[in-house]
Amino acid sequence: MNQNITDGKYSNVEVTNKTIIGNLNFKKYENIVYINNVLNTDENNILLLNKSNSKYIIQNLSTVEYKKTITEIEKTNKDIFTSNNHNLKNGDIIKLNNIRRLKPDSTTLYINLLQDTIQANTITYKVITTTRNTFTLKTFGNSDNSLNNISNIIKTSNKNIDSGEFELTTTKTSTENKVCKINIPNNTTDDIGVFYNIIINDDATSLEINTLGDDKLIGYINIGRNELISNDIIEEVDAKTKLLITDIPLKHSSFELINIEKNKWFIKGNLFSNKITHKLTYDTDDYKIDGKAISLMNFYKNFVYEFDISDPTLLNYLFIIMDSDNKNYYKNIIQSGEMGHLNSFIRIYIDPSETLDYIYKIKYKKIKTSLNYEFIPLYTIKATPTYFS
User: Fold this and answer.
1) CATH number for the 275-382 domain, one of 2.60.40, 2.40.50, 2.30.30, 1.20.120?
2) CB–CB of 360/379 below 8 Å?
3) pLDDT of 295-322, one tens digit each?
4) pTM of the model
5) Residue 116 — φ and ψ, nearest 5°?
6) pLDDT (average), residues 228-251
7) Are strands 54-59 and 195-200 parallel, antiparallel or unpaired?
8) Gap between the Cα atoms of 388 and 31, Å rounded
9) More exposed terminus of the chain, fewer Cβ within 10 Å: N or C?
């Protein structure tokens, strides 16, 4: 039986956890796509969900490196490289490293299995065909034209490649912003039942999911409460085209997308926490929040904001929340521990009854021995965000 699983479209069929039989050996496959920005997104860093009935695990949002192990090579009428769930697509350009095996009766000496003329690790190859776990290649894009269009790449088959890997080449550059942008393919037929599961497995700074064409979203997202001092935040949607979430912890969040009828997708999103954390430190002659000078921040109703005040530079300093009349403010504020001590924090819950655009300040001393206090605006109250549009 054929053990290669294609990326075709399935409708009204459960295809995860497929079990197939090949030569009476049971093998289990799951439709999982591990997303690396440099590999899976277009020139605008947008991911198109093009593998139906699959689970997409979003990771490595800002890295520009993609390497993966090659475990086996097979020389038949074409040279086949095995790398489980490699994620390569036709046309990708890669390099090969350590395509070798140990010499007989040796633990340190190796035999290079690439043809003699292409053993340099600078040689580049184009991916010609792919299955879930295998791919074939031709040399491509090398300055010496005699090194291009070679498909006779390996000398012999081997099932024990030692430290073999491929490395994707790319012109993309790294970015500090871990922005995740996703497009849902336009559905213009009545062939319903296609679904996608998305899991964010990185510290993304924002998530944007867009429909294309005339497609619309219905459903909801749920942002879980934290520390039992607030309620879940639930936003429902009907006939919108975009979900945009920013400034919330997105790691471990999950989203289900199901095509329930022509041009209509049901979305169910779950975010782990409504708590947003900041780290307070003292640097030279002033406080810093997340390594930057203090500036007015937006704090949203129904969210929890926590300041980590455990940094040793804060020992014996003050951090007091004040209202607009410069009076100490205590409502929905919890302090655990003391400034500069391990595991200490100040936690603030923004109650729905708070007045919009009201500004709270902090009171502190820039220098411990100073006789004067500083009063600096810290946060202003904003309505709970609307994420669908």
Assistant:
1) 2.60.40
2) yes
3) 999 999 999 999 999 999 999 888 899 9
4) 0.74
5) -55, -35
6) 90
7) parallel
8) 28
9) N
